[in-house]
Amino acid sequence: MATMASLFLKTPGPSQSLPKTHKTHFVLPQNLPLSWRSKYRAGPPAAAAAVRIRCGLIDPDGGKLVELIVEEPQRDLKRRQALSLPQIKLSKIDIQWVHVLSEGWASPLKGFMRESEFLQTLHFNSLRLGDGSVVNMSVPIVLAIDDSNKNNIGDSSSVALVDDKDNPIAILNE
After folding, report:
1. Beta pairing class for 158-162 and 87-89
2. What is the DSSP string of 55-84?
3. Which of 42, 62, 97, 100 has the lowest tally of Cβ within 10 angstroms?
4. Which among 40, 16, 45, 19 has a CA at the least distance from the CA of 30?
5. pLDDT recorded at residue 11
6. Residue 96: which residues within 8 A CB-CB, separation 6 or more?
7. Over the stretch 3-36, which tens digit does the pLDDT of each residue have?
8. CA 17 to CA 27: how far, in whole Å?
9. Do 140 and 122 contact (CB within 8 A), yes or no?
10. How high is the mean pLDDT of the chain?
């Protein structure tokens, strides 16, 4: 699987924490039929009063959130490194996919899909992870390049992904 380090600034994402529990309060509307209002005059039934609703973030697919954002102290070093690598210009949609991948919204992916992952997604709408577990993944997230880009990359194991103004967005590693 290809890995990627994104140079995006960190924005609030799926790793934000939310309150873990909330208590439920029942309020009966005034327009209930009289038979219902008298039935619940003392409050909701005991079973309903004991109901507890929990909310929180579900575990990311694959069990671990994959955030690929480079922290601030290393960002300038990675930008300089990206300028010395072969480059692939990204379209606006490709840049949005880099953003999705870098913030962990496509966990457990660590970069754009390789051929085997792409085929699994197309045929099975899921990915089988190294530990044997299966993750729903119905949308392929790929970076399509043409032959000229492929020849430009050559045998390099790292490639800089740049926007239309040649600003480095990410580094894609083998």
Report:
1. parallel
2. --PPPPTTSS----BPPHHHHHHHHHHHHT
3. 42
4. 40
5. 47
6. none
7. 666 665 544 454 444 444 444 445 555 665 555 5
8. 29
9. yes
10. 80
Hey, is 101 helix, strand or coil? helix
Any idea which residue has 């997604």 for tokens? 121
Helices (H), 69-138: 72-83, 92-102, 115-124
Phi, psi of 154 (to 5 degrees): 65, -130
CA dist 102 and 139 (Å) reads 16
* CA–CA dist 119, 110 (Å, integer): 17
Q: Which CATH number fits domain 3-15+61-173: 3.90.1640.10, 3.10.400.10, 3.90.1510.10, 3.40.640.10?
A: 3.10.400.10
